[in-house]
Amino acid sequence: MAERSASTEQEQEDAPLLQDLHAENTTSILDQMKAKPMMPFHKFLLIFVLILLLLSSVLFILPYKLELKGRDREGEAHSTVCLTEECIMLSASILSSLDTSKDPCEDFYEFANGGWLRAHPLPADKGGFGHFESLAQDNKRVIQRILEDTTSTTSFVTSDDDQLLTKLGGFYSSCMNESRLDERGHEPLMVVINNIRQLFKGRKEPEENKFKGLAAALAYMHSQGLGALFSFDIEGDVGVDSDHMVLWFSQPSLGLPSKEYYEEDDTCEVYQDVIGRLLLIVSEEGEQALHSQSESSLVFVQINNAWPPWPGPGHWPPWGGDEEEGQEPINKTQKVHKLAKEVVKFEREIARASLDLDIVYQDPIATYNPAPISNLTSTLLQIQFEEYFSRVAPKNFPDRVILTYPPYAQSLSEILEKTSADVIEAYLVTRAALSLSSYLGMSTEAWKAQRTLVEMLTGVKKGAVGERSEYCVGQVEEALGFAAGRYFVNETFGDKSKEKATRIVTNIVQTFRKSLKGIDWMDEQSEKAASEKAEAIRVKVGYPLSPNTMDPASIIAYYRLVTGDKDKFFENVLSGTLSDRSRHWDELGTQRNVDAWEVFMYRWKMYPSMVDACINPPANWMAFPAGILQPPFFHRDWPGYIVYGAIGFVAAHELTHEFDSAGRLYNQKGKLEEWWTNSTSEGFQVKQDCIIHQFSEYTIDDGKGGEIHLNGNLTSGENIADSGLIQAYRAWKAQYDSSYEAGDEYLLPGLPYSREQLFFISFARIWAKNTMHAALVQQVRTDPHSPSKFRVEGTVSNVPEFAEAFKCSPTAKLNPPPEKQCIFWGSS
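The structure assignment produced for this chain is given below.
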């Protein structure tokens, strides 16, 4: 076969794939059609083929065009459907979360979240799990990678960063070293317990002097973050000058979540058993230390140059060693549980004397009762406050105190007076043991005892424990959250995200101010004052400036007392608490400057990686940490109707808190006063009563065959804040035209819903959460936030725009008649 020449090959390569088999015929098809008219059938066939070709061309070109529009929205003013990878993933996420078998007008929570709820069964180690918890897990994984591989941060670290990362790494390692925790056993806890006992000394004194060491013991406990008998906090004096730090005296935290639990026999039975187990552990550990032949085995610490002779003569608990000859040995377990029963009875009396939580959360005027410090010291005579303050606040002695509930001090005095020193000491010891046992090794009996209580109160499966790394990162965040936040922000939160999130919040504030003119219950004078307050709100996005996330030296100074010993997790936790408490007591009597208000973020635990947001009415600012500015709440490239429905709602919620049942009582300078007119306050109260009644009608299953009604009073502030959803909707609508022109209102593929419907779906999706019955009961009793389902459906039923978007019938459950709607921010 002859070889083909190069020219021949090139000619063949350039030739069309479909060659004209009749090359000699050069007559065009058009000429042939003119020369020979076609039959009607042929005309029809030709038209049909042309239509097919046209449709094929459109279908071939359109996806490419749409993809370009999705990728480059800056240059395309009228984008339609985005087909980028990010858009497809977002669309798939929304579709997978839905349960379209549900009618959105009847059960919007399930419609928006049913798919997600089925796909994410509750983990055995958690009482509740939803999008907030899921995102918190993701954020922890980011920090975990940083802690386990510090080389990932070498692109911007300094010598100060080396110091921070070493402290962070040591803290994390000490928590992860479970073998070391188990090896130490109860040793670190017993150091704290013995300190409390040696300071108290109540049992060694005559009955009339049994309170001699109570102030010292309480000062020590409170400095370690251990709640007992009462609490002191350093906050602004909101009735005079919110920038001036004063002392607030309040009721204490309880061993059980709320006073209702102390009235349940089955709950108290379990709690009493846990208290008894902790007392028995403390007793046995003390006896073991006494009988040890090696001084190095003694784990107790020296206080005031006095080595504690315990156990021994007058040992504690008060049993054993004193039996007369011929007597039966005292049953230690029986005695322990008898003492435990007295401790629970003592706590029950404290709980009954405490103020109800709905007043604590919702009435800042009722809980603001300034008084000379002498009012407190002359009422609660069992506590030597001069000694207490000399230990916790040696720099200054307060002359003024804010009492959140004045009757509590008198009630506590009466309770203490009739209680034996044995019971008071056992109460102090078990409050410490219950609070600190979770930081011990999981093989210790104290850890197992407190875990029993956790499982009962949350419904967590017995023996189910989550990933140790997740727990340890959480402990790092609690103790060194601003330090870890520096590296979290570097990994996840850029300037463009900060800019867009700030713009969204600002837009919502401006929309809110404009909407005030249309509120039927607010008169012109109050509207003007409310507008000024809204305008004065400072917006904080991403991370604080004090300590400055961008300045590692600032963070080092902030955590001056926090250790990071890789072998001592228990002590690391306490050093973090001690640093925090010491810092706050140092502020007593001082005047804050503007930048120092940033530090207040820590009191709300608002470290940068936290999935939360907050409002501070006394300081008049809102904060949105970088931790919540992540999917499914926020992404800088998402369409407007999605981000305004999710993070926009969060911003509107926090803004509305400034004008809820409690926030409305602070003026724009953070001073507590009635700055609305009487008629406006009366109109607001009508709306508040409406929403209290609405949410009080909702019930949950208690898991025992009964139902529990929501506490509409307790949750009214949060429910009013949730009504701010309409402000997010209005803000989205207000910027829609410009956003559309900029290409930021593009559609997502495969979603047969309008932008308005997707706004509400975006809002509802963030509340998806599976919860155990026990955890739900605890939430209803203690949490000012309503359960997720009611936060969704209770809110949209008060927003007529929701029913309009989904074309709900007038008889639909979530489209009640106007007279039954609780509309705060409109003329209805």
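Interim note for the steering committee: Residues 1-38, 41-78, 293-316, 319-325 have pLDDT under 50 and may be disordered. The chain is about 55% helix and 5% strand.
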